Amino acid sequence: MEVNGDGAGNSTRPRKVIDEENSAVEIPETAHQISSDSWFQVGFVLTTGINSAYVLGYSGTIMVPLGWIPGVVGLIIATAISLYANSLIAELHEFGGRRHIRYRDLAGFIYGRKAYSLTWGLQYVNLFMINTGYIILAGSALKAVYALFSDDHVMKLPYFIAISGFVCALFAMSIPHLSALRLWLGVSTVFSLIYIIVAFVLSVKDGIEAPARDYSIPGTTRSKIFTTIGASANLVFAFNTGMLPEIQATIKQPVVSNMMKSLYFQFSAGVLPMYAVTFIGYWAYGSSTSSYLLSSVNGPVWVKALANISAFLQTVIALHIFASPMYEYLDTKYGIIGSPFSIRNLSFRVGVRGGYLTINTLVAALLPFLGDFMSLTGAISTFPLTFILANHMYLKAKKNKLTSLQKLWHWFNVYFFGLMSIAAAVSALRLIAVDSKTYHVFADL
């Protein structure tokens, strides 16, 4: 897709770029700002995703089901293959003499109309579920603050989820597009460091003072198999956004080399804090580690309150990143251009983004099973988008330039991750079925 070189993106006239069986895919220019951000800023966007408050759950959702050796090895392997898969997608950003600023645009250009629609559907499910999980996280953090100062149990988790959804909507209305986050990315980094450092330090303190811990994988043999498969979906979920072309669209030229710098920054600076808090949390509490680490640690009330408030606020910012493709689609479709704070544009964001996040919030309150969301999201959308589709698109786009061994490698990835996706989806659905027997809708977890 061709876009305005100045990054204004102020035309909404669709361009037909694909014709398959006489049915064209119409790809509009974006109403959002593109080609304006440094690789360093984009690197912080990617790092914000890795070190979001989701990181506080990996001790319980990855390490507990896998144990020490598979957990550590799995995280390292997931880091490497995620960097590799993201690099493949980044290299295709300007494939065919066009710049593909949306994941579905790239898939449509390579495969045609059906793949365009299927990719958009997968991506929508992926981002919707991630955003729903963020609202659950934010509500859990608020509830943790409340529990530190009150034991009357009057306020339940669904109430805090509703508050979180409202705050996220207010933030979405004030930030018109992804590039406008700028200063907020620095604020997000500070918040991330606060809850990661607090969780790390308090976990070390508890681990030193605690008696011997149990690191055995809980459950029956059958349940261990399912939880292990589900944890593999959590592994890939931890490192991948499912919206790399949309993030790459914001970066300045040259877009491919700059995006590679951003990816290397993400995986060099971003993974170390995540590794630290994940491994220390599991070391300190073993198989009893909570799926929200700050609920396991012991320490001064004000310190835990600060960490939970930081987790809540960082989640509000991180959610905006993963909701931005939907915002871009709606703003482009309805021609929301010009001043972002004009009456028309502001009213549109209040109604449309507010409505979208209201649906997210309702689903979050109905089914607040955070670990289940992570597993199912990784299975049905992150696996296909990040690994299956990335390898197959690269194979199809570069087939004349690849050796037989390289082709075999990419086909192996396609089939392997395809099987993993199916197995992980079955495991996640089983987990949801089990939890639905334990918890009711609007549960106060």
TrEMBL record:
One of its GO terms (cellular component) is endomembrane system. The keyword Transport applies. Pfam families: Aa_trans. Its main location: membrane. The keyword Transmembrane applies. One of its GO terms (biological process) is auxin-activated signaling pathway. Coiled coil: none annotated. Belongs to the amino acid/polyamine transporter 2 family. Amino acid/auxin permease (AAAP) (TC 2.A.18.1) subfamily. This is Amino acid transporter transmembrane domain-containing protein. It comes from Populus deltoides. The lineage of its organism: Eukaryota, Viridiplantae, Streptophyta, Embryophyta, Tracheophyta.
